[in-house]
Amino acid sequence: MDFQVQPEEISVRIDKYLADQLPDRSRSFLQKLISEGQAKVNGKPVKANYKVIPGDVIRLEIPEPEELQVRAENIPLEILYEDADLLVVNKPKGMVVHPCPGHYSGTLVNALLYHCREDLSGINGVLRPGIVHRIDRNTTGSLLVCKNDFTHNFLAEQLKVHSITRKYLAIVHGRIKEEEGVVNAPIGRHPVDRKKMAVNHKNGKDAVTHYRVLERFGKYTYIECRLETGRTHQIRVHMSSLGHPLLGDDVYGPGKCPFPWLEGQTLHAQVLGFIHPATKEYMEFCAPLPDYFSELLERLRNTR
């Protein structure tokens, strides 16, 4: 892939420049490619500390990843809907969606390979068969899975034009005064901590979250969030940027959670709606709140 440094861009190290252009790639991964001669500036290999200047043409070669064998595992799934083209599952808390470093078993994909056998789209490769969108490990709720490539492409286009309905329930720190609001702030890789996302006006991508208050409890607010876009950690980053991080969020929230038994953010993908690729009719599904979320709401109501 090729990049051309624009006149308005400042002079920075090439590893940082590429990391900003490719937020899904770690800086250490890009530094390794540079050291192996996979990055050339104006046709010549450079070192990671080379500072790009306006007009530089950068060619980066990213080798194809080694194919890993992902095993089918007999893991129970809560299926909200299934037909010949797709299924909607209610993902539990703590389950990783697809294999990644440190999580090559016990993932949703491992379970899907057992349940669907060969009937999963292959567009996203061996590690992500059937997966057209993701939710975080500690986020629960509705997730769409595609059984063939036609369905995958059809639904991916709906995601691209933001026509899929995605509504989440969350509990956030603090008392939100207004009844509803919109966060329109671009999200990109955090400029210092590359494992985090952040509101990034320079290198971020457009991100819009609509929220409305459902209930208030002294120090906390129960809200519904509707995604207009679907950036990584979007709701978590946007609500934190307002000063209302999600309760239990150990990445974007305060250092200490007042409920130590919580495992990660209180975020549930409740509603998922889309046009079915075969019938062309709108379908909508609602994932019930997990027990931990309902119990936490009751506790907050009782101590209000």
Largest sheet: 9 strands, mixed
Query: Mean of the pLDDT scores?
Result: 92
Instruction: State the fourth-level CATH superfamily of the largest domain.
Output: Pseudouridine synthase
Could you tell me the number of beta strands?
Answer: 15
Low-confidence stretches: none
The 3D shape can be described as: globular
Structural class: alpha+beta
Pattern of helices and strands: EHHEEEEEHEHEEEEEEHEEH
Helical residue percent? 10-25%
> Which fold name fills CATH's third level, the topology of the largest domain?
Pseudouridine synthase
Report the C-alpha radius of gyration, rounded. 21 Å
Number of contiguous helices: 6
What percentage of the residues does DSSP assign to strands (E)? Answer: 25-35%
Distance between the termini: 55 Å
CATH architecture of the largest domain: 2-Layer Sandwich
Describe the structure.
The chain is an alpha+beta fold and 304 residues long. The chain folds into 3 domains: 2-60, Structural Genomics Hypothetical 15.5 Kd Protein In mrcA-pckA Intergenic Region, Chain A, CATH 3.10.290.10; 70-161, 2-Layer Sandwich (Pseudouridine synthase); 167-269 and 293-302, Pseudouridine synthase (2-Layer Sandwich). It has 6 helices and 15 strands. The strands form 3 sheets. Strands 5, 6, 7, 8, 9, 12, 13, 14 and 15 form a 9-stranded mixed sheet that branches. Strand 10 (187-189) and strand 11 form a beta hairpin. Helix 1 (14-21) crosses helix 2. The longest helix is centred in the middle third of the chain and has 12 residues, at 149-160. 35% of the residues are buried. The mean pLDDT is 92.
